[in-house]
Amino acid sequence: MDAAALRAMQAPLKERYKGDPKTAFITLKAKGTLDDAHIACKVETGRALAVAGLHPATGGSGLELCSGDMLLEALVACAGVTLKAVATALEIALKCASRSTPTRRKISSNSCSSLPSAIVSSIRRSGAVRPSRSSSLARNSALARAMLADPFFWYALALKAAMTATIVIVASVAAERSGPFLAALIASLPTAAGAAYIILALEHPPAFIAAGAVGSMAANAAVAIFALTYAALAQRRGIVLSIGAATLVWFLAAMLLQSLQWTPASALALNAIVFACTIPLSARYRAAVASQSIKRRGYDLPLRAAAVAVVVAVVTTASHWIGSFASGVFAIFPIVMGSLVVVIHPRVGGKAAAAVFAHAQPALVGLCLGFLGVHYLAEVIGVWWSFAAGLAITIAWSTALWLLRRLRPA
Length: 410
Hints:
four-stranded mixed β-sheet; 14 helices; 68% helix
């Protein structure tokens, strides 16, 4: 069977699953009956009756099947069928598709007592379960070629760019026409991240979105460090050094985040620790700056929108390879905040631009809480409702900060 025949065979099934997802769930069953005369168990395989008994090393006759061998054979069959199906779909030629799975285990009076270690040993030693680096590269290369050859991929990419550019332009214009405090509230909203998550939701299941939200929560702490780094350097340094160093700090923090295992609780704790430091440290940079008219050049907004669109397109396209957590991390890359200060810094000075980032510190707490809501709600009420809830949480937090500022005595 070739790739075309496999796709033709599976096409009706995929359409049925899309129309009614519940039909994609199946229940696997196994039935066994104890033998009255011998120490054996008769298992119905669906094709024949298999009789499992004691291993000869524990006194068995050798006429019955060994349950340990049956389990290992099932694992090898599962790995083999999956390998063959994926290789056929991606048109990858298999040079060798046969590999034994020798497993050494200690025999006790109960022949099944050492099965867990046998299973682990088999999985670790089996070449069928662990693909080589060359086969992984070949698979990724074939998948990339298939995506690039698909017209729908380019249509979707254009839609991603247009959607992201629209969101960013609206947010940027609103931020530029307000003071540093309101600009910070707008810049800290999930604009580019929201566009990225909308596209991720169209391409991945709710579980992927929920896991990605944990990555975004953890990366939000890196954004806070990014903002503090820029605010500190912008007091005396130029735009290139300030934004360049801050971006480098963000990437180093993102690399460190991906080397650790994160849960919603640990990501929330990380944000609490980071903001406990960055909020008071950035207070000195929030000094009121006289509102100044920002004169944009004709290419400012298109260039900014293009930069954000490229980031979103790259992250959402690469999500098929880098996984959910890394997708969540890079979805929150501070491209909107960075592009905003690229325009503001040369026009009104580093201190005025730094005031925006300093005011953004408390607002970023709401972004973390919004992603926390997405994580817990994506698989419960659906991805789109979880997005609405996450955005509502972020906006509610920013609104609360705005009201507190209004009620604070002058």
